[in-house]
Structures are given as structure tokens and as C-alpha cells.
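for the record, two folds in this file. i put them one after another cuz i was lazy. first one right below, seq on top, C-alpha cells after. the second one comes after a little note so u can tell where it starts
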Amino acid sequence: MLDLRRPQVMGILNLTPDSFFAGSRISATDDLLRRAETMLAAGAAVLDLGGYSTRPGAAEVSEEEEKRRVLPALQALRQRFPEAFLSIDTFRASVAAEAVAAGADILNDISAGTLDADMVATVGRLGVPYVLMHMRGTPQDMAQHTHYTEDLVTELVRFFRDKLAALRAAGVVDVILDPGFGFAKTSAQNHELLRRMDELRVLGLPILAGLSRKSMVFKPLGLTPDAALTGTVAVNTIALLNGARLLRVHDVAEAMQTIQLVFNTYSTPSSP
């Protein structure tokens, strides 16, 4: 089991040619294994592997192409690092099922089951932990779905409660919540959500914060993703203070240092 009583780090491994942060793109197995080894040595508790870029306006990727990218990579990671926690970042039930068969331990779904009607039942059948993320629309059109008729956090709490009920009915036991920073939210909404993220703890589940090098970090500073490490450390610090128990990042060593300093300063952090 992944122990989230103390905050942990999830390292991002992108098997995509068009991820928003060019420095995270991986195209060869040797590069994948080197990066994975570096992340694990730096303290990553989970490696999150994805073959479908979900940046705003990202191009569609076929199911066959997504499998071609991630399944051999998962097998290589599982063979080289048999004790590592491996996560598959996908919203497709068939990809999820084959990825778990290939060695994935955790399912990270940006769509909360909204983009594949078979996903919830598949997660229940697979019996793996599930990262439940808030998003509206698709990666191609989510920027058009940023209007919320009532309070943003209230809508997220209602969304999560409804999705959790369906997951529990399907037999899913272990769930991690992801507020979905950058997904169907404006920059102002992202920052409001970060400021109020602790309100999501009313649901009693651990929270994942995926803020690494995103536009809400680099655009206000007039930077690009490759120059956004310092800003990422800053927002990750805020996330930890507001209850995050898992940081999804490109830069594992810096995230581990952030956790260590925050944890040392607040020696008895609140439970999720």
C-alpha cells in the first residue's frame, strides 16, 4: 500500500511527442529507464506513465497508438523496477485494463470516467487505486467549459461526491482526489482553487496536486514551462499547506526537498 500519511511524490513520465513541457518528453526505452531510475533515487513514491497528451487543445491519439506507447514501457519499467509503484495516466478502460495486466498499480483518470462509459466498472473489476480528477469536456475543448453557475469549490465537492457514489457502488475502495488544476478552469479559478484546496478535505480522502510547470505558474510570471521550476516549488508549498498528500511533478528532487522543509516546519500535519 502507498502510505500517504506523509506527503509523497508522483514523477511524470510522458511518452508523448507533444506534452506541454518539452523537457518531459520521452521517446526511447533507455531514456525512460534512466529517468525512472533518477526519479526513484530522488524519492518518488509513484511513477505516472502517460501516452496521451492532455494539454489544452492537444491532438487526438488513437487507442491503438496509446497502447503502443505505454504497454511496452510499463513492461520495461516493471521488469527493471519490480518494487516501484507504477501509475497509468489514461481515460480509456481498455488501456487501463491492459496496463494493469502489464504491471500498473494505480489508475490515473483525468476524466473521472466521463470519457469512457466502461471505466468505472473496469476500475472496480481491476481492484486498483483510482485517481479521481475533476474536468469538464475533453482535452480538445475543456477551455470552453470554465463557467461555473455557483461557487467553484462547492461544485467540485458535489462532483466528487457523485462520482464517489458510483465508484463505491462498483466496488472501488481506494480513491485519491485530484482537483484538476488547468482542466476546464481559468487562471483565476486555478489560483482560487489552490487557495481553498483544504476545503476538499471534507470528503475525507487524500488529495493529489498536479501543478508542475503549468500555465497558472509560468504565465503570471511571463515565463515558459522550462523556466517554471521555482514557481512550481512555490505553488507546491501552498498545496502542501492546504492538505495535498501527493505531488505530481516533473522535478522529483525539488518536490522532495519542498516536502521535507514543509513537513519539518509543520511536524504534525493535518490528516487528509
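(here's the note) second protein begins now
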Amino acid sequence: MWMYLGLLAALFLGLHNLCKKHAVQGNEVFPVLLGTISAGFLLILPFYLGSLWNPEYMQKIGFYITSISWSTHGFIFIKSMIMAASWVLAYQALKHLPITIVTPIRSAGPFFTFIGAIFIYQEKPNFLQWIGFFLIILSVLLYSKIGKKEGINFKRNKWIFAIIAATFLGASSGLYDKFLIQTLTLNPQTLQFWFCFYTILILLIILSITWFPYADKRKAFKFRWSIPAVGILLQTADYFYFKALQDPDALIMLLSAIKRSQIIIAVVVGGLLFKEKNKRKKLVPLFGILLGVFLILYS
């Protein structure tokens, strides 16, 4: 069941990526990010209020938000800082790079998760999983060559480094999620509510320095329907992902790889919607990544 939940998370993440590209194109990145997280927070807020006013009913329907200790709050705040940094870098990169380049680089996340799962959680991949692992690496390298044809030099473009850093931080957060869900036994909605709450606080501090004081930047911001859609889709994906992680048999390195099947939506549908270049050539490394994910998943 945790594998099916992972596939559901991948579906919503793929739709989330399409909306995110629409939200940031020609727009101010930081307020877009704040808007998406705020929309996700408002989606979960009724569960928190219901847990305060009618805890029995919320427990019955499975959306009860539990009381947690201050130390647990601290652990969630660390996750918020990691992901806020990852999103700031990723959103800036997405604004300046094609989605058909950004999404495959983001698909490198399982590499970092794979290594972390081996050394931190002692998860043991088999021979076919190792083949899948290196197949994904080679496919991402092939994407870098295609990217050069679009005027994107992977060695000199600062947004490439930004998306790589964002990917590393995101993978670190994924490993940290297993600790939060399985060791601290947080349920998905509790983790999601407080994570959104602390992330909003962090983003408000960032915006108070980089955006609120500047009238020209405030005027440049355009509200779009895709901004709240990004937040709602992300929280839906995270819910299925955290539910999958609650299974003690769930392997974080395989779950991370399953989530990357979202690239089918981003590369194929996104390439058509945003009319990006070299779509056919990108299908070759796309197939390589999918084959790598398949080997990891079904070996």
C-alpha cells in the first residue's frame, strides 16, 4: 500500500510542478512562495480548529492534529528551515530555467536519498537497484548536454547551481521526514500543519527584508489562480507521502524514487504547455530515468 500511496503523491506533485511553473513565470518569486504555503496552511487549518473544538470527531475521520512537545516543535522548525531554503532556491531557478531542465535535475533527489538511506537507515539496495541508481545519474548528465543547446551552460549558470542545492536540501528533508514520522511518530496532518506554520513565519522574515520595503517589487507581483493551486496540490501530495512513510516497512530510498515518476507529467505535458525546445531529445534521458526508477521499484 505504501508504494501506491507514493504513486498518488507523484501524481499530485507532477500537477503541482506544472502550476508552479505557471505561477512563477515573469512573477516575483518570494510572494508566490508565501502564497502557495499560505494556501496549503489554510487547507489544513480547519483540521486544527476541529481538533481543538471537536477532537472526538476529528479522530473518527482520521484528521486529528495531536498536541506535541516543545522539542518536537523544534524538530519541525528545522524541517521548515531546510525546506524554505530549498524552495527559495528552486523557485528562483524555475523562474529562469525551462521546466524540462529543472524537473529532471530535481529528479536527482533520489541519489542523495539513496546514499542517506544506506548510511543513516541501513537500507540495503540489491544489484538491480544499483543499476537503476546509476542509470538515473547518466540520464541526468545527458539532460545537461541537451540543456547546453538551449543556451544553458551547466558549469556557468548560477541557476543550475541553485537547483542542484535545492535538490540536495530537498533530499535531506526527505531523509529527515522518516525520522519525524517513524521515530517521533507524528501523524501526517500534525506535521503538515506545524510545518506550514513555521515556514510562513520564515518566509515573512525573508519578505520583510527583500520584498515588502520595495514598492516596485510589490507592483511587479501578479496574483494567479495557480498560486493557491500549487499549495493545495503540494499538501495533498505530502499527505499521501507521509501516510506511506507511516508504514514501518516503507523504504525511503524506494519511496523517493517512486515520487520522481512525476517527471512524466512535467516533461511531456509541461513541455507542450510551455512550448519548450528539444522535447523529443529530452524523451531519451526521460526514458532512462523512468527505467532507472522502474528497476529500483520492481527489483
